[in-house]
Structure formats: C-alpha cells, structure tokens
C-alpha cells in the first residue's frame, strides 16, 4: 500500500475486516501488514507443533560391563546394544575395572573389540577404546539415522494396527455369517417319548 497514515491504515483494516499488525517496528517508517491475526497465530502454532514432532534428538545410551563378564550376561548386554543401535541411538560402552583388574587393560580392550565385531551389522566404532581412570570407554554409532529408524518403527506399528483391524473385521463377519446361517436353518421338531403321551393328571 506504500506509506500511509495510521488512521488510513486502520480504516483499511476495518473495511477489509482484518487486523493491522506491526511486523518491523525498528524500520523507518515502521512496516505493518493487514492480516487475520488469529489465523496467523493458529498456523504458526501448527507449524511449531509439526516441527517438534518431526525433529529427532540424538540420544546416547550407556552400557556397563565387567572385564570378566560371563557369556550369558554378555549376550544379554549385547542384545540391549543391538536394540539401541537399531533405534538409531549412540551407545557408550563402559568397562569397569576393580582392584587388580586395572593392571590388565587388555581384558577390557579385547572385550570391547569383541562387542564391536558382534554388532558391526548395526553400528560402527565412533570413538575407539580409551582408558579413563578405572574405566575404559568406547562409543558405538548407528549405521541408520534416528529419523529412518523412527519411520520404520512407525510403519511397523501402523502395519500391526491394520492387521489387528482386519482380523477383527474378519471375525465379526464370520460371526454374522454363522448367526445368519443359524437363523435360516429349519428347527428340528422334538421327538415325542412315551411320557409325552401320558395323561398329566396321572400320578406315576
């Protein structure tokens, strides 16, 4: 509209049934727009909500092991690491040394190398093993991005929900067919026995 007086801008806003909104107060002269401010706030809130829903936060999970961990516990811990990596999360592996175990850091190094080799299908070594006081640390990174893993999880959840809905509908349809068949079937007459021909007034 160009440069107009405030009174004229307000009159234009009233005639168009819109709001006069200042968008650049520091400009000379200040800049204002004619808009539906309520609609603008609603659309902005929707955009913010969608962006928050789609954003992915990098999460670092932690798994602690002992140098002399038994095979069963190792397999359990490895399963957790695989689950974290498949979900797109980083995993910090901590080997905790106690007492004289600190004099044998190769135990921790070999254990970390074994774990990295076992999960290489799902992740890679992002930070090589290093000693940190009584602990030895290693960071594993996922091959897949968090957003990709989340999309797969959402797709799998939707597929399961669709399958459950389909099964429920099929079960209901089968019940309706059975009920219809039962209603259409002729009823069998009850055969009369000897007692049915007796006089009801006769005491037996």
UniProtKB/TrEMBL annotation:
Q: Please give the organism.
A: Naumannella halotolerans
Task: List the GO molecular function terms.
Answer: ribosome binding; translation initiation factor activity
Q: Which domain of life is it from?
A: Bacteria
A GO-annotated cellular component: membrane
Q: What is the protein named?
A: Translation initiation factor IF-3
Q: Where is the Translation initiation factor 3 N-terminal domain?
A: 1-50
- Any one Gene Ontology BP term: ribosome disassembly
Q: Enumerate the Pfam families for this protein.
A: IF3_C, IF3_N
Q: Which family does it belong to?
A: Belongs to the IF-3 family.
Q: Sum up the protein's function in the record's words.
A: IF-3 binds to the 30S ribosomal subunit and shifts the equilibrium between 70S ribosomes and their 50S and 30S subunits in favor of the free subunits, thus enhancing the availability of 30S subunits on which protein synthesis initiation begins.
Q: Where in the cell is it found?
A: Cytoplasm
Q: What InterPro entries does the entry give?
A: T_IF-3_C_sf, T_IF-3_N_sf, Translation_initiation_fac3_CS, Translation_initiation_fac_3, Translation_initiation_fac_3_C, Translation_initiation_fac_3_N
């Amino acid at each position: 509209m160009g440069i107009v007086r405030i009174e004229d801008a307000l009159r234009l806003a009233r005639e168009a049934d819109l709001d006069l909104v200042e968008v650049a107060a520091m400009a000379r002269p200040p800049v204002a727009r004619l808009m539906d401010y309520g609609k603008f706030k609603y659309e902005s809130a929707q955009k913010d909500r969608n962006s928050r829903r789609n954003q992915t936060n990098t999460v670092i999970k932690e798994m602690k092991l002992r140098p002399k961990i038994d095979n069963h516990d190792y397999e359990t811990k490895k399963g957790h690491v695989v689950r974290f990596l498949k979900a797109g999360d980083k995993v910090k592996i901590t080997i905790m040394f106690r007492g004289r175990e600190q004099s044998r850091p190769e135990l921790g190094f070999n254990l970390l190398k074994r774990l990295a080799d076992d999960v290489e299908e799902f992740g890679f070594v992002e930070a090589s093993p290093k000693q940190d006081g009584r602990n030895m640390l290693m960071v594993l990174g996922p091959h897949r991005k968090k957003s990709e893993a989340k999309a797969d999880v959402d797709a799998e959840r939707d597929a399961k929900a669709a399958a459950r809905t389909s099964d429920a509908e099929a079960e209901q349809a089968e019940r309706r067919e059975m009920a219809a068949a039962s209603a259409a079937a002729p009823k069998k007459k009850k055969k009369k026995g000897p007692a049915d021909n007796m006089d009801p007034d006769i005491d037996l």
